[in-house]
Write a structure and sequence with these properties.
With 147 residues, the protein is mostly beta strands. The chain contains one helix and eight strands; from the N terminus they run ββββββββα. The radius of gyration is 19 Å and the shape is globular.
């Protein structure tokens, strides 16, 4: 089995469709990476993944809006095509099996009260976890752990 995992920001609001009686949530995730080229110039490369999340529970769609940060994993597939300029290009697609909402919009600070939600097609369960902020004394105690 080949598995693809991506953390990135949604490029636009998701689209919910019904196809042959089944619901699919389509969305695109962008992952940007900064690096230096051979001449030492700063470069940025963005990879887009077109995602299809087949699910009976479409409640997550209201949270899949432009700029939101998500983690998605699933089965990848690549399609090659010739674009309008005559150049050969490819599209990376993923059939999503698990998605986690990681928080707010790109660049927005994530405090300790950020919500993380898990949606999985494997067991058809939906769960949400809200971290509880701890007092400063509790955070200092973690520094004393040997690992």
């Amino acid at each position: 089995m080949i598995k693809l995992q991506v953390i990135g920001n949604l490029g636009k609001d998701c689209i919910v469709k019904e196809i042959n009686g089944k619901n699919v949530i389509n969305f695109s995730v962008a992952h940007s990476e900064r690096y230096k080229d051979a001449q030492g110039n700063q470069k940025e490369r963005t990879t887009w993944v077109e995602c299809a999340y087949w699910t009976d529970r479409t409640a997550v769609a209201q949270y899949l809006t432009k700029g939101k940060t998500v983690y998605a994993e699933g089965t990848p597939e690549a399609d090659g095509y010739t674009n309008k300029d005559g150049n050969v290009s490819a599209t990376l697609r993923m059939r999503v099996q698990n998605i986690q909402l990681l928080g707010g919009n790109a660049g927005e600070s994530q405090g300790s009260s950020a919500t993380t939600s898990n949606y999985s097609t494997n067991n058809n369960t939906v769960s949400a976890q809200r971290p509880v902020s701890q007092p400063a004394a509790m955070n200092d105690a973690a520094d004393d752990l040997p690992f």
